[in-house]
Amino acid sequence: MTEPFAAAHGLVRVYPATGTADSAGAGLVWAHGGGFVHGDLDMPEAHWVARAFAARGVAVVSIDYRLVRDGANTFPAASDDVLAAWTWTLDHADELGLDPARLAIGGASAGANLVTGAVLRMLGHGSPRWSGGAAGGDTPRWSSSAAGGDTPRWSSSAAGGDTPRWSSSAAGGDTPRWSSSAAGGDTPRWSSSAAGGDAYRDLATGLDTAASLPTRPPEAASRPMLPAGVFLAYPTLLAVQPAPDPALRAALDANPDADRFGPEAVRSMYETYLGGTVAHAPIAAVPGLATPADLVGFPPTLMVNGDVDELRVSGEAFAATLAEAGVPIELALEPGTVHGHLNRPDEPGASATVARVAEWIAGLETRPASPGAPRPPETASDHQTTRITEGITS
Description:
Blueprint: E1 5-7, E2 12-15, E3 27-31, H1 47-55, E4 59-63, H2 77-91, H3 93-96, E5 103-108, H4 110-122, E6 143-145, E7 149-151, E8 166-169, E9 173-176, E10 190-191, E11 199-200, E12 230-233, H5 246-254, H6 263-274, E13 301-308, H7 312-324, E14 329-338, H8 348-362, E15 386-389
Helix pairs in contact: 2-4
């Protein structure tokens, strides 16, 4: 089968590889961008990107994660979807013709934030101490339990009528309860059965194997195997980011259409995603807050930033932290691009980035076999920790 097909009850769309890759079984689990509120699987940043990688021999599993709508689906809804899609892909790697040792995860813009946060949760950084601001009347999304430590307590707003995605049971602990909103008509991606436990439902076209879901949130359950690598396209990783340097500031001033991500716009985007204040937000939601200690064991990373893009500042800051943690990081700048160039396939930067990333995926080394295991510390002689590259031609 070479045509894309839906699976995991609509959570993902699978694009089988149609070309020949240097690494057999290579794959990419992919999250489009859209500021946490926009985007779908048919936008170029999802569909064209997936087709382009598949043509280069890299199968793609594109994630239809939940978007924030009218206060619903705030953090951690989309993060949960990314983790579910990653776990589903691992569970079905044989059927998909994928080698888990050659399976990367990646995303663009807000999607890059989501996959970075998901990897941090795989590393165990997933029990945030955060709640919405009391002044704004936001209902806490996460709270800390004095008796049991930090336990996710996902609750809905009585005023907003949001259906809880996670609920806590005194008898059984925290159990995923993903349910459809009667008003919104959302199709459940997973459901809880008292008799049979939690299972994926209605896998499409050629995939009909049910896979057990964790009975607790991913950060409290056994963690899945880490990706072989992480690809971040022009990521947003900080809610409050440093000011651009004079050269970037001048480039933005010279191109007002590209100057879209000033401090207020970025903070507002994250407040929408979090459903409240950005103060004390967890690193799973704002990964740029991670320290070098938090990033020990993070997979090798390729980051491709836009040339004239203020979000590049948060990406560069995160890349520096990865390097300080000893994580292999390649930081590239795609010349002549502004934010979102993968969503504009007619521009040369889009094809250049796909070519760059396909080559990088083919060269990924096999990661440790133990699920979630951090890599041993590496020395400068083991690899070039940070490599700055310029644009390449397709």
